[in-house]
Write a structure and sequence with these properties.
single chain, mainly alpha, 4 helices, elongated
């Protein structure tokens, strides 16, 4: 067992932190879209059949990912700032 545990732990890479934060934001946006869709009984109050529902879920997921990858709600950048360590003096 290494004497210095921090040396055994891999460094947090900024790219990995940003990717995880972006995925988190996309998941959150997707859940928000899903809850809006479910609460209305379909988009614009229309009832959906099972195949239309599956297609809509896929579309919502893709839309949420695209939105998050292009800045989204700004949550990913806040998460990145919170997870990155400040530079040591």
């Amino acid at each position: 067992m290494p004497a210095d545990l921090s040396a055994a732990r891999p460094k947090d890479e900024p790219a990995k932190i940003k990717a995880a934060a972006t995925q988190f934001e996309a998941l959150l946006i997707g859940q928000m879209l899903k809850s809006m869709h479910d609460s209305e009984g379909g988009w614009l109050g229309t009832g959906d059949d099972e195949s239309a529902s599956s297609a809509m879920e896929y579309g919502q997921e893709i839309f949420a990912q695209a939105l998050s990858n292009n800045g989204g709600l700004g949550l990913a950048s806040m998460v990145v700032r919170g997870l990155q360590k400040p530079p040591e003096p």
